[in-house]
Amino acid sequence: MVSKGKSSSKGKRSAKKAVREINVMEHYLVPRHRVLSKEEAEQVLKKYGITPYQLPYILVSDPVVKALNAKPGDIIEIIRDSPTAGKAVYYRLVVKSE
Amino acid sequence: MAATFGTVSGIKFGIFSPDMIRKMSVAEIQNPDTYDEDGMPIPTGVMDPRLGTLEPGQRCKTCGNTYLGCPGHFGHIELPVPVIHVGFVKHIHNLLKATCRSCGRILIPPEEIERYREQIKRMYEEGRPSKEIFYRILQRAMMAEKCPHCDEKQYKIELEKPTTFIEVVDSERIRMTPHAVRARLERIRDEDLELLGIDPKSARPEWMVLTVLPVPPVYVRPSITLESGFRSEDDLTHKLVDILRVVQRLKENINAGSPSPVIAELADLLQYHVTTYINNEVPGVAPATHRSGRPLKTLAQRLKGKEGRFRLNLSGKRVDFSARTVISPDPNISINEVGVPIDIAMQLTVPEKVTEWNLERLRQYVRNGPDKYPGAKYVIRPDGKRVRLKFAQDLEEVANTLEPGFIVERHLIDGDIVLFNRQPSLHRMSIMAHKVRVLPYKTFRLNLCVCTPYNADFDGDEMNLHVPQSEEAQTEARILLLVQNNVLSPRYGAPIIGAIRDFLTSIYLLTRDDTYLTKKELSYILSAIGYEGEIPPPDVKKPEPRWSGKTIFSLLLPKGFNHRFKASFSPDIEVVIENGRLVKGVIDKSAIGVEKANSILHRIAAEYGPDAVREFIDKIVKVANTYLNLRGFSFGVDDLYIPDKAYKELEKVFKKMDEAFNVLKANYEKGRIEVRPGETLEQAFESNILQILSEAREEAGKIARKYISPESSAVIMTRTGARGSLLNIDQMVAVVGQQAVRRERIKRGFTDRVLTFFKPGDVSPKARGFVYNSFLRGLDPVEFFFHMAGGRDGLVDTAVRTQQSGYMQRRLINALESLYVEYDGTVRTMDEKRIVQFQYGEDGVDPSKSYHGEAVNPSIIVNRLGIKGGSRSPIKPEDLSNLLKSYEGRLPASVLEKAKNTIKSMKMGRKDAERFMEETLREYLKNRVEPGEAVGIVTAQSIGEPSTQLTLRTFHFAGVREQSILLGLPRLIEIVDARKTPSTPIMKIPLEPEYAKSKSKAQRLARELRYTSFEDIVAGVGLDLKRNAVLLQLDEKAMKAHGATMRHVEQALKQAKLKYDVGEGFVRVYAGEGAQDLERLRVRLLAMRVKGVKRIKKTIVRYENGEYVILTEGSNLKEVIQVPGVDYRRVETNSIHEIAEVFGIEAARMAIVKEMQHVLEEQGLDVDVRHLLLLADMMTLSGSVKQVGRHGVVRLKSSPLARAAFEISVQTLLDAAVRGEIDHLKGNVERILIGKEILLGTGMVSLLMMYPGIADGGSEPKEKEKG
Predict the structure, then answer these.
(1) Considering CB atoms only, which of A14, A62, A95 is closest to B1144?
(2) Is there a single domain that holds both residue B379 and residue B521?
(3) What is the pLDDT of residues B191-212, one digit of tens each?
(4) Within a domain: B605
(5) pLDDT for A5 beyond 50
(6) What is the domain range of residue B446?
(7) pLDDT at res. B1177
């Protein structure tokens, strides 16, 4: 699941030294992201009775989306550490631009 | 004509076509004159009677209605030459640039057009057309130099502000006439316009050039007759007259065949007048003025800004049935009451429907008439006729005709429900419902405990009162808005209504260990609260029976109430309440005060409900008030007494301080002070002085506190939380201390000295605003001056702060206003129903129902169920985990965890555990937000309201002195503004184990990180003209300080592919072939990086939690995580945009929450996280961090009206017209604008029930009247 993308575009400028392998998913601020399968995505939309565009967005250019290799139209499930609920689930739709 | 009623379902924006304007028009206006000598409007003049009539009695020439019924009619002016509409100049310019000058096609090849069209079509199908694509197409089209359709060469078109277009044909500037512009716009095809986001049906581009000007009806620009009999015309009328005059002259000239320069000049004049008619604040155009020089208020000005139509008349409206007067305190009325002066009660009315049961009472009111209390002002008969009792001949007769079905508008009486409000209405508790108590005199009376939510005092404050008229409104007020339902604040989930000031002092004095009251005193107090039970047994029997204050207080507590907490008086005092008896400890602010979580008040509110708290607070107030009356409490000079010995000690402190200062000054003059990086010598000196002074002040304070009697009124008041702080006591008794202006010692005034009492250059404490005296001793004149200066600075600060926080709150409200909780628990936007949160606050709990943020408070449940715990057979672990498992999915993980811990630690038996879980679930469900709740508004208020209390201009040291960061209100604004870079970017860089353990390694890395350019390390630069090279003299000391070595230098030069020689302490860099660029090379070299990470200005190594970390000033996340040795998993920065870029939107969201939390916590403000979570989710909704304001969250709104109501009204509306946008009136702002109810809260529900009457054909009184 976790792609070791050669840190994609970033680091191009600081390419003097060998680019360090950075996995953005490991940073403490980044919660768990997961691409939902077609069925799961369908279920989410049905559960809330919405079209995909009513979900919060995440850009394709988002580093995490790149790491997950998700495509526009995918729905990403995010499991956050919540100060109130302990764990909280959030969904974002991958979009090309806002 | 039978009127049909419907509701507005939407508003479409567009540009009027000339045909449409003519079609609408009832009169062509030609005559620049308004009235003839008789004062009659001239036909075809601007006040043409066909446009409507202003005078009562007259009938409209067009529709025959009087001024009450006539809606007004438009006229029109035929413009002899086309005129460009200023508002559309930008659009016209873009269109001219994007289309062919010859064939009018968009300058994009056909294949590409097809591609874009497909793309747009797809977006529409997905229901999500984005403005960005149109912008991209526009940019693409404007690039073309040749028309791909007809091969015509395209020329550059310049816009000469404000309304002139110039085509640059082979460097010859040719001015385009509006006529030519219009001709070009006419050629543009409809299908090409669609590619640019313009709706050709509602906004053909040629309509942006006016040929006909609509003339608004006279109601829009009424003329007023002054007392002197002179007529004064509206600004718009003036402007129309100006336009007509030019039109007339133009016509004459054209008909006479005048030379074209004359006509062109007149056309320009017409352009000017039309421009200023539309907008009188166009940059580059002299505003049209009144004869007095006052600029005219024309169309755009009428809409714009705070005083414009939107914000003044549409978003907020004036109301009837309201009153305003001065407030004064009354501890004898309940917190949910308001004392209404009888004069006001006789002016405000409530409609009451006559029934069999109130017939007699209402008849009496009618008999009393409007001038005798309690009376009535109107009687409304079932046929809708109103009888005004003031003019009724015989009140008795009217009273006798009263029958069920009549409505009587009677005076306000005791028990009526009213809304009470004090501005600024910063949070929802600024408007609450009270029950009326009609009282004598002229002021509104309110219980002192509700001062906190209203933020009221009695130094002349006024408040407003509104009387809800309909039964629905009254019921809603009674259920939702009554004071006792608002005791718990949604900002932090703790009481915001509670005892204040003297009540706290009094209750403390009463509940102290040594307070015993006689029977007489006891009786006084008990009768004040109307106590009817048994008198408790006395605590002391001999010599006479006496009751302790604790016993009396216990009488107010509910039976079976248990609680333990720490008193505010001293952290050593534990307050214990067992079974409704105050066993130990004293009652003070942390027991019954406001803004204290886990107090007695809080527990009672959470456990026993609103009515119990109300009663409790009412009684507390009465008991406290009565007791304080009995005992007495005063404050005087005696309360500030400290023995002479103490003064001697104080002397010593100051002597020591002066000595320390002298030492410091001597060192300073010798330049021997430690200067921290980034500081000048002076700054170091100043900060050292401040250090010395504040230490001295602190020490003096300690002495004062040591010697002052704990029985002093001052001490009692501060320690109980009634009023004042320890600092206040210090200043009164010991020393006032340093006065500051802009957080610095006062230094402005005369040259080198503040006042002439000092020698120039005197930097001693005395000369820079240190006040050695206490307030008790009195200030000397110099000190008095400094104190005044400091005081003034404080006032200025407050004024600036209220403005800033007010604007921030307005933006927050506008950004979050549309968020509400849907029935499925999600938080959505009103217009597009987009989901912002899947569970409100992530656990779905309403912060005002939470226990200071906790979803469920286990100890309340334990108490409620009477679970003792300590079972002999505690629940088995596997049973417990099974039990918990069955609740999974129904309760949030955090609640389950807490429940588990409680069950375990209390050693509950199985039965108890099961009961406990059941009740926990019930409590959780009870505490969930209710669907329809306007959580966005609550969030905006919860962040905006406390922001007034944030400090302004504060830099704080983040851990170490060298690293200072901006906090307080400016930082909060920075976060919600989503600024690209924080004003004080900092990072915290944890290291990988190898580096984290070793100080030297960490330090080496820190040096490595720090950005160094040649500028930092060269002592001098020379140009070696002979060798065509730049000579860099390296400064060894600076290099060392920066941690730069020769290796770095060489590496940097190598990387830049420059030839160089290294010599003794210098480097020679050759300019290469391009010999002339020595100077350029020099500049380039100086700015060149030698080592380090860009933007990292300073690095500090610090030992923290068992490891070395690097703190930096300046932030560059992207590159820092690339540096080997940095533990990128834990790197922190306060730059939210950098986080969004490097770690994604979710990380940025977390960072926003953390940063805001940090600011609020640092200032000691209590705001529930749920509010911060919601704000952060809204700011990141679109996938990137969006500002709270017009460029960010507000722009995402789909409604043009909502956007226009916030800021930049005029341009927003014009843009909406060009795009042919439709406002569906779904959002709250729009609905308020047009006067519809908003679909939130109680407005969200619709009942499947109809009024009788409407169901069978619409016979509701109001409709019948008109139909």
Answers:
(1) A62
(2) no
(3) 888 888 888 888 899 899 999 9
(4) yes
(5) no
(6) 323-348+412-486
(7) 94
What ipTM goes with this model?
0.86
Residues of A in contact with B1119 (CB under 8 A): 13-14
In a domain, B593, yes or no: yes
Same domain membership, residue B104 and residue B58: no
Q: Higher model confidence: residue B1059 or residue B551?
A: B551
Residues B665 and B769 in one domain: yes
| Interchain CB distance below 8 Å, B1129 and A28 | yes
What are the structural domain ranges in chain A?
Answer: 27-95
Of all residues in chain A, the one with the smallest CA distance to B1183 is A58
The predicted model scores a pTM of: 0.90
Chain B nearest CA to A73, separation (Å): 11
Domain end point (choices B733, B763, B779): B779
pLDDT at B781: 94
pLDDT greater at residue B345 or residue B1260: B345
Q: Which of B188, B206, B224 is the last residue of a domain?
A: B206
In a domain, B211, yes or no: no
Per-residue confidence (pLDDT) for residue B452, from 0 to 100 = 93
Q: Which residue of B has its CA nearest to A77?
A: B1146
B48: CATH: 4.10.860.120
Q: What pLDDT, on a 0 to 100 scale, did the predictor assign at position A24?
A: 86
Range in B130-139, B917-926, B1102-1111 the model is least confident about: B130-139
How many domains are contained in chain B?
A: 8
Task: Out of B826, B834, B1121, name the one closest to residue A22 (CB).
Answer: B1121
C-beta atoms of A82 and B843 within 8 A = yes
Strands (E), B307-430: 322-329, 337-341, 349-353, 376-380, 386-388, 407-411, 417-421
CA distance A37 to chain B (A): 19
Instruction: Give the angle B102-B108-B113 at the CA atoms, nearest 5°.
Output: 125
Enumerate the residues of chain A whose CB falls inside 8 A of the CB of residue B1131. Answer: 27
- For residue B834, the chain A residues in CB contact (below 8 A) are 53-56
The runs of H, that is alpha helices, within B948-1062 are 968-977, 993-996, 999-1009, 1014-1017, 1036-1042, 1046-1055
Closest CB from B842, B1122, B1128 relative to A27: B1128
Cβ contact B453:B433 at 8 Å: no
Distance between CA atoms of residues B178 and B92, nearest Å:
11
Query: Encoding tokens for residue B1111?
Result: 């703190």
Q: What SS3 state is found at B127?
A: coil
Query: What confidence tens digit (pLDDT) does each residue in B655-664 have?
Result: 999 999 999 8
Q: Sorting pLDDT into bands at 50, 70 and 90, what band is B683?
A: confident
Distance between A23 CA and the closest CA of chain B, angstroms? 9
B759 & B653 share domain: yes
Compute the nearest-CA separation of A80 from chain B (Å).
Answer: 9
User: For chain A, percent helix, then strand, then coil, each to nearest 5?
Assistant: 25, 25, 50
Q: Beta strands B574-578 and B563-566: pairing type?
A: antiparallel
Q: Specify the amino acid at residue B564.
A: R
Nearest chain B alpha carbon to A82: B842
Chain A residue nearest residue B924, CA to CA? A85
Do residues B1230 and B1221 lie in contact, with contact meaning Cβ atoms separated by under 8 Å? no
Confidence of residue B953 (pLDDT cuts 50, 70, 90): low
Q: In terms of domains, do B416 and B405 share one?
A: no
Measure Cα distances from B1150 to A80, B936, B975, B1154, B1172 in Å: 9, 19, 13, 6, 10
Nearest-CA distance from B835 to chain A in Å? 5
For residue B1247, is it within any domain?
Answer: no
B748 and B861 fall within a common domain: no
Mean pLDDT over residues A93-98, rounded? Answer: 83
Which CATH code for domain A27-95? Answer: 3.90.940.20
Write out pLDDT tens, residues B817-873. 999 999 999 999 998 899 999 999 999 999 999 999 888 988 888 888 888 877 788
Band of residue B1256 on the pLDDT scale cut at 50, 70, 90: low
Q: What is the CATH number of the domain that holds B359?
A: 3.30.1490.180
**Cα–Cα distance between B12 and B21 in angstroms, integer?**
16
